[in-house]
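Listing 4. Sequential folding, example run.
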Amino acid sequence: MIPVKIDIVSDIACPWCAIGYARLEEAMQQLKDEMSFAVEWHAFELNPDPAGDGQPILQALSQKYGRSVEEMEQTQAQMQTIAEGLGLNFSALQERHTRNTFDAHRLVKWAGEEGKQTEMKKALFEAYFGKDAVITDPQVLVSLVENIGLDGETARKILESDQYVQTVREDEAKWQKAGISSVPAFIINDQYLISGAQEPETLVQAFKDITAKT
């Protein structure tokens, strides 16, 4: 069994990050008899300013990209179709609001220490894209923590403190310094970068090519 390390730089508020991971899961499933995968998630913020929290997403995207709301609606609809084809709940994709994800990233770091980092990330994706959950709300975050079997009271204490603040800041800075400016970004075996939400077949071939070199 060939070991493969995957560092994923992503944001909870990034739909292509959710799609990219679902495609990665399919690729890993295809290769499960040949390779063993170790995944670690790293923080990136699309909306780092907490003051920008709560704006309707179509309006926010229109302003950001200088395109009409109708154009953004069409783009989001196409993304919704792709996501649903992968079994993802994106039913609130166009109704969601911009959210600052810093506190959520803190909980993802903690969940990693508890052996449930991917479960935490997927729960956040589902809540945000499927239900337009207010993922800046501590009570919402604690509820998601409890849903994946972690201790809600511990999560509440983390959110009320500055635990993992420095950890997330350093993580963000590290990957920005490494040149990551868009997400998702997949770094394979500390050497090879795969950018964007690639199709499972592309990922399978990439893993085969990379492991053949080692």
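-- end of first protein; second protein begins --
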Amino acid sequence: MIRRCTEADIPALYEIINDAAQAYKGVIPADRWHEPYMPLEELRREIADGVEFWGEEADDELAGVMGIQHRGEVDLIRHAYVRTRARRQGVGARLLAHLMQATRKPLLIGTWADARWAVRFYEKNGFRLLSREETARVLRRYWNIPERQVETSVVLASPAWT
């Protein structure tokens, strides 16, 4: 069952994000990795900044989470993570499909350039990789991230993006 996450889910969000983010360790630039990957204070700031988390529940616990953030004429998919033990069961694809159906706006997804599995996942689900120039432009316009992250990230766009 996919449902919107609540304040009561914050401990589970924190756990899922930091469990799943272990896949980035040794893959993303070392200067961008830290533990925990997303501290609790940062998670709370993201929620306060408008990231709405949705989760898929299985066996009375969240198996994966994905956020959506409204940014005017576009929506951003933010912080998409599936518990390590729940991977390769379609959780991410179902969450993404749910959020794609929830908006009529173009969707943009930012991820680490070296996280090739994430890029392939989004491409498999209908998103296209933007050029380096367009990636830098949209990251600076719609995200609030350090310049180093702009340099090491890619953006994928839904078919509605022109």
